[in-house]
Each structure stands twice: as structure tokens, then as C-alpha cells.
Design the sequence.
């Protein structure tokens, strides 16, 4: 009787023991697999990688050029030398305008430059450098990292085996250097200007002729009269290229590049070969280099501007009618781009939607604050005429 009553209890204990043993065996097995992967990971974690970084900038160019140098240093330091990155300036391995192809084909593992240089191959790439009358640096960073912009950029470059990351921002640029004054929109006629990207098309539609010239050649092109005007960046980088020596008039604001964003591009296969920790290091090194560029330009632009003005540069504001013509033609160029192919349309819609939303808030934050500050503080720069 007693045994019969105990039978279900004994069965239960036996089942429980079986479950426990199976569980232990499963856990043990899982641990073996994990440690197996760990051992494999440990082996890979000792593996050394060497990457070449090619840029669209002349070697040792401050400002724009510092992003590649910073990235190389951050990655090499953070990885304890397991991933070493060596920087090559334009022309050392490939010319400036072949950086994208070099990374796509694996000639170099990583590149630094501006996406709008690839507009002939990928028209929608211009969204990731600058849209005339578009978003500022702060707004671009918001769109890229929290507004879906980066995911669309990845989709755009995926067919080329290239993974893009934000690569630094200059903030609002200057409209550029001109060898004569612009008094009205009529003065744009016949003007030859180094101005890339969508803004180049806008400039053509406004009566001028846009020319695409790499940074290393802009000084000579102005000096020899190949072009009449050049936009490069802003006071800090323009002074390092000596552009004040080849033109007298320095115009603002940079309608064409209100928050010009540079890019890091990584060969997809090279990225895939890295262990997870090095992939993370590459990713966070781009984020750090991206922010650092804006910090540096913010810190150095004014000092450079003061020095340019002291050396005789004539500061001028673009006349309102010039800005209006440029805006009207920007709108047309942007619509044509959005209608040119499905991915361009998708990116244009995302960009426009984010820009509209962020502008609404910036009306009552950034702009309202700057206006309020200007009301109570005396002006620091005489911007006449
Ligand atoms: Ca520029």
C-alpha cells in the first residue's frame, strides 16, 4: 500500500532528476560551445590588421584633412595596435576623385572625402555632403544618427560594397572667393567657379559655369585665371590654402553648404573580416572624428577670419536677389534629383521630412536664442556693406 502510494512521488523524483541531468548536460554543452567560440574569438583577437586610408585631400591639410589622421590615431590607439591605419593624401595611392572606387575595389580599406564627389556615379550621394539651403551640421547629425539618414546612406552605397559613416562637418561654410564684386544676380553670368555637388548644377542654371577641381589645385586654378571664383570651406581652411592671395572678395553665407558633411567609407569585406571589438572601435572612431572636426572649425574659424580681414580681404554679403535666384534654382535641381531614381526619391523624402520637423523646433530654440543674444549684446563684427 505504502509503495503504491509512493510510486507517483518516486516517478516525479525520477523525472525531476532526469530533467536536472539533461539540463546540466545542455548547460555544460552550451558552455562548451560558448567557450569554443571564445577560444576562436581569442585567436582572432590577437590577429593584426593593417588598413590603408586614402583621402581626397592633400597630405597634411589641416581641418578637412585632420579627420583621416584622427581616425587613424583613434583606431590604432584604441585597438592597442591590432588594427593599424596609415593615411595617404590625394595622389599618393590614388588621385582625389578615385577614392570611392579604390575603397569599393579594396585597393584601400578605408577612405575619407566628400560624398558629392561621386555624384556622377551615384546622384543621390549629394544628400550626404550638402543640400543648398538645407540642413546645418547639428541638423545633419540628427538626421543621420536618429532620423534614418544613415540607414538610407548604407542602402545607397551597398551595391558598391562600401559602408559609409559620417566623417566630420565644417559647419556653415563661406559662399566663396570672387575676383570681382557681385552686385546683382546678373553678375553671375559668365562666371567660372569651382563649386561641386548639387550647388554646381544650381550655379550653372543661374548663369555661371561650375567647374569640379580637387583641393590641391584650387589655388593654381584661381591664380592662372582658369576660374573666377572658388568655394572651398571657410576662413580656417581657406587661409591654409592661401585663397586670400588669389581673390579679394570673400562672400557669405554658404547657401550651398550650410552644414557640409564629410564621409568615411569602409570596404565592406575588410570590415567583415574584423572581430566584433575592432568593428566597434572603427564605428566609434568615426563618431569621435566626426564630432572633432566641427569642434575644431568652431574654435579656429573666427581667428582665421580676423587675420584675413587684417590682411586686406574684403568681406561681402551675397545680395538678396542673388540668394533668391540661387534658391529658386536649388528647388528645381532638388526636385529633378528626387525624380531621377527611386532611391534618390526615398532619400529626398526622408531628408525633407526631417528638415521640416527640425526647422520647426529650431525656430524657437537655435534661431530664437541667437536673435535674443544679438538683441542684448553689442555686435562684434561690422558686416557692412
Ligand atoms: Ca565647400
Sequence:
Amino acid at each position: 500500500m505504502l509503495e503504491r502510494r509512493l510510486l507517483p512521488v518516486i516517478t516525479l523524483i525520477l523525472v525531476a532528476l532526469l530533467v536536472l541531468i539533461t539540463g546540466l548536460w545542455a548547460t555544460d554543452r552550451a558552455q562548451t560551445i560558448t567557450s569554443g567560440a571564445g577560444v576562436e574569438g581569442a585567436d582572432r583577437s590577437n590577429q593584426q590588421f593593417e588598413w590603408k586610408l586614402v583621402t581626397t585631400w592633400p597630405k597634411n591639410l589641416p581641418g578637412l584633412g585632420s579627420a583621416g589622421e584622427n581616425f587613424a590615431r583613434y583606431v590604432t590607439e584604441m585597438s592597442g595596435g591590432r588594427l593599424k591605419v596609415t593615411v595617404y593624401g590625394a595622389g599618393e595611392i590614388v588621385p582625389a576623385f578615385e577614392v570611392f572606387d579604390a575603397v569599393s575595389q579594396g585597393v584601400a580599406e578605408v577612405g575619407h572625402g566628400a560624398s558629392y564627389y561621386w555624384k556622377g556615379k551615384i546622384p543621390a550621394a549629394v544628400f550626404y555632403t550638402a543640400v543648398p539651403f538645407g540642413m546645418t551640421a547639428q541638423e545633419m547629425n540628427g538626421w543621420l544618427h536618429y532620423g534614418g539618414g544613415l540607414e538610407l546612406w548604407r542602402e545607397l552605397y551597398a551595391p558598391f560594397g562600401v559602408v559609409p559613416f559620417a566623417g566630420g562637418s565644417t559647419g556653415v561654410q563661406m559662399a566663396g572667393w570672387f575676383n570681382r564684386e557681385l552686385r546683382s544676380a546678373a553678375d553671375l553670368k559668365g562666371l567660372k567657379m569651382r563649386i561641386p555637388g548639387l550647388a554646381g548644377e544650381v550655379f550653372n542654371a543661374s548663369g555661371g559655369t561650375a567647374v569640379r577641381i580637387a583641393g590641391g589645385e584650387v589655388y593654381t586654378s584661381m591664380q592662372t585665371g582658369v576660374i573666377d571664383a572658388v568655394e572651398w570651406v571657410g576662413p580656417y581652411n581657406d587661409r591654409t590654402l592661401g585663397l586670400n592671395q588669389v581673390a579679394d572678395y570673400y562672400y557669405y553665407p554658404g547657401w550651398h553648404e550650410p552644414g557640409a558633411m564629410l564621409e568615411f567609407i569602409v570596404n565592406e569585406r575588410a570590415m567583415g573580416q574584423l572581430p566584433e571589438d575592432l568593428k566597434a572601435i572603427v564605428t566609434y572612431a568615426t563618431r569621435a572624428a566626426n564630432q572633432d572636426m566641427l569642434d575644431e572649425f568652431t574654435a579656429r574659424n573666427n581667428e582665421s577670419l580676423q587675420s584675413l580681414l587684417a590682411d586686406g580681404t574684403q568681406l561681402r554679403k551675397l545680395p538678396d536677389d542673388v540668394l533668391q535666384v540661387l534658391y529658386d534654382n536649388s528647388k528645381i535641381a532638388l526636385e529633378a534629383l528626387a525624380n531621377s531614381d527611386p532611391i534618390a526619391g526615398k532619400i529626398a523624402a526622408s531628408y525633407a521630412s526631417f528638415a521640416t520637423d527640425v526647422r520647426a523646433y529650431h525656430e524657437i530654440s537655435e534661431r530664437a536664442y541667437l536673435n535674443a543674444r544679438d538683441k542684448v549684446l553689442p555686435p562684434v563684427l561690422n558686416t557692412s556693406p
